[in-house]
Amino acid sequence: MTAPSRTGPGPRRVRRERLGRLRSRSAPYALIAPFFLLFGAFGLFPLVATAWTSLFRVELTAPEAREWVGLHNYARLLHDEFFWNALFNTAAIGVLATVPQLLLALGVAHLLDVRLRARLAFRVVALAPYATSVAAATLVFALLFGRDQGMVNWALGLAGIAPVDWQNGPWASKVAVASIVIWRWTGYNALIYLAAMQTVPRELYEAAALDGASRWRQFLHVTLPGLRPALLFTVLVSTIGATQLFGEPMLFGSGAGASGGADHQYQTLGLYLYEQGWVNLHLGRAAAIAWAMLLILAVVFGAARLLRPVLRGRGV
C-alpha cells in the first residue's frame, strides 16, 4: 500500500508564512517608532512636566521642595503688569516684523521668479541672513542702531532728522528689534514663495495675458491664489516665531539682558519667561508662562480657523 499524500502545507511553512505576515504588518510601525520615541522623550514629556510644574510653587535652587498651589501661578499672571507688558511687546514686535517681512518676501520672490542672470547667486544671497548666527546679526544691528555713533542715526542726520534713541525709546526699540527679524527671515520666506510660484501652471498666465490682464492683475488673480498654502504656512510659522522671540531682544540692549530695556520696553514673553525662571529662579511661574504662551497660540489659531469660512465667503 502507498502512503497517503499530504494535501496541506507543513507546519514549518505555516510558521514562516505567519512570521512573514507579522513582519510585513509590523514593519511600518518599526520604521516610525524612532520618531515617536524621540517625540515622547523630547517633546511630549517636557510638555507634560512643564504643565505639572506650573501647578507648584517651586524654586530653581531647590526643585525638590515643592508646594502645591493649583492654578495660582496662572491667576497671578492675570494681575501681573509685567506679563501684560511682555504680551503687548510680543504682539507689537510680531506685527512690526511679520507684515513687512512677508510683503518684502513676496516682492523678492516675484523678482527672482523672472528670468534673471545669476539667479542662483541671488537666491544664495537671499538665504544668507537666515544662515547667519542670531548673536552675530543682533550685535551688528545693535551697533547700527547706536544712539551716538550708529550708522542709522548718521543717515537720519544727513536727512535733517534728529537722532533717535533706538535702545531706550518705547517704539523705536520695538522697530529696531523687528528690523533684525525682518532682515533674518525675509530671504527664507522669499524662497518658500518662489518655490510655490514655480508650481503655478504657466498656462494660467498665458490665458490671463490673452484676456488683456496686466502683470499686476496676473499677480493678484493668478499668483496669489496659487500661493495660498505657502502664505498660510509662513503666517503660521512667523506667528509662532514672534511668540517665541528671544535671542534678538535678549542681545539687543547693552547690558539690559532679560529685562528688555530699562523700562521693559521691548521685553517679550520669551524674555519674561527666562527672567522669571533663570534670573528670579521662580520655576513654577516660568512654567505657567510657557503654558500661557501655548494657550495664546491655540486661541489665536482657533480664532483664525473659525474666521476662515467667513473670509472665504467674502472672497478673501
TrEMBL record:
<feature type="transmembrane region" description="Helical">
    <location>
        <begin position="29"/>
        <end position="52"/>
    </location>
</feature>
<protein>
    <submittedName>
        <fullName>Sugar ABC transporter permease</fullName>
    </submittedName>
</protein>
<keyword id="KW-0812">Transmembrane</keyword>
<keyword id="KW-1003">Cell membrane</keyword>
<feature type="transmembrane region" description="Helical">
    <location>
        <begin position="86"/>
        <end position="112"/>
    </location>
</feature>
<keyword id="KW-0813">Transport</keyword>
<dbReference type="Pfam" id="PF00528">
    <property type="entry name" value="BPD_transp_1"/>
</dbReference>
<feature type="transmembrane region" description="Helical">
    <location>
        <begin position="124"/>
        <end position="145"/>
    </location>
</feature>
<dbReference type="InterPro" id="IPR000515">
    <property type="entry name" value="MetI-like"/>
</dbReference>
<keyword id="KW-1133">Transmembrane helix</keyword>
<dbReference type="InterPro" id="IPR035906">
    <property type="entry name" value="MetI-like_sf"/>
</dbReference>
<feature type="transmembrane region" description="Helical">
    <location>
        <begin position="227"/>
        <end position="246"/>
    </location>
</feature>
<feature type="transmembrane region" description="Helical">
    <location>
        <begin position="175"/>
        <end position="196"/>
    </location>
</feature>
<keyword id="KW-0472">Membrane</keyword>
<feature type="domain" description="ABC transmembrane type-1">
    <location>
        <begin position="87"/>
        <end position="304"/>
    </location>
</feature>
<feature type="transmembrane region" description="Helical">
    <location>
        <begin position="288"/>
        <end position="307"/>
    </location>
</feature>
<dbReference type="InterPro" id="IPR051393">
    <property type="entry name" value="ABC_transporter_permease"/>
</dbReference>
<comment type="similarity">
    <text>Belongs to the binding-protein-dependent transport system permease family.</text>
</comment>
